[in-house]
Amino acid sequence: MTAVNLQFPRVVITGVGVVSPVGVGKDAFWRNLIEGRTGIALLKSVSNDRLPCRLAAEIPDFNPLDHLKRKKLLKVMSRDIQLGVGAAALAIGDARLMAGDCDPDRLGVVFGAGRIPSTPQELMNAAACCTTDGAFDFSRFGEECLRQISPLWLLPQLPNMPACHVAIENDARGPNNTITSREASALLALSEAVHAVQRGAADCMIVGGCGSEVTPVNIARQSLVENLSRQDDPQRACRPFDVDRDGGILGEGAAAFVVENYEFARRRGADVYAEVVAVAGGSDGAGPKNRVGGRGLVRSIAAVLKKSGLAPHEIGHINGHGKSTLHSDLIEARAYHQALGAAAETIPVMGLKSYFGTFDAGTGAVELAASVLGLARGVVPFTRNCERPDPLCRLNVIHHEPCVLRNSTTLKVNRTDMGQSAAAIIRAV
User: Fold this and answer.
1) Range of the domain at 85
2) Are 323 and 329 in contact (CB under 8 A)?
3) Does a structural domain hold residue 261?
4) CATH of the domain at 63
5) Of 34, 115, 261, 300, which alpha carbon lies 20 to 30 A from 141's?
6) Tens digits of residue pLDDT in 2-55
7) Cα distance between residue 380 and residue 117, in whole Å
8) Are 309 and 316 in contact (CB under 8 A)?
9) Are 408 and 428 in contact (CB under 8 A)?
């Protein structure tokens, strides 16, 4: 094993906050995961009768006012933003990071966010104003109908708003940024936060990702561009790495983490969940050969192994992307075999979208939370619905029961269908 480069300060995770379809708060989230309870159900928040996919992973018991200090700001928060701010509040509480513990100028925020849609209701009056006898007249829009739209209409849809609101809520005046790389966003946000701490720009960072895909427009749109499961039974929908998988499920959720300089965390007496050993990103690039081989994911995994000085067999488990589409799962498996060699067939792999679906930038954050909590407990959840692991993937998928960890190191990966990938290695301290 190659010695780890110690010239940079160690970076650790001291707080975890989760708002998900399988639980709000880390304890409910973990309990339901480890007991194998799905958050996927028949879509209830809107009519599902005419939608191509009638299932979704919704959060029924989340009240944003329970987590907001500045409650009047709720009026300019979309569902995505509410989930992200709620997760951040839970993470800060979990880390016991009190006002005055960290210089506000050295407390930063990096959040992953995606395309935040407006609802049809927000534009209904404007559309009606331009409609006569069932025909829409575009020429009337600028003159008559713009005033039917709220002046604040755009604010809740801007992807930088989760990071802004988290910073405002916590008086975090340090480095602040937003990553918009779909499912890879949370890990790339973690990478930027780690670099901010290591270069001395911050002592503490609030990192996370949020997303909500549970709208009729999103479900219809996603059904056109990617495979969504046509299952009617929520207990059998979303089957990562299973030979009978037929597509993913859309959901909603967010997770956030308090990430600190280890010495800073030690001085303030914080409990540490795990150390962030290495994070890296990559892209497939152009050409079908690169895309089907998952070249971006191969490069990401190779980079974190090199940074960490670890060999593939030293990885305790892989927290996989596991989108449950035929195409994506095969690409992911090929990347493991190319990056990890023979170890790809023996390292335990879990696919947590089988519990809560996919929800853009928030997905990777909620998945990462499971490994962070699992490392502290020495066990990780199993992959639901992987009853017959796909022999073309040739992976050691954790299924049927939780997996007791052989060591305290995990590889977390995420990728997008456009080829952006990210990988992170974390380990218990």
Assistant:
1) 11-118+154-428
2) yes
3) yes
4) 3.40.47.10
5) 115
6) 444 457 899 999 999 999 999 999 999 999 999 999 999 999 988 888 888 889
7) 34
8) no
9) yes
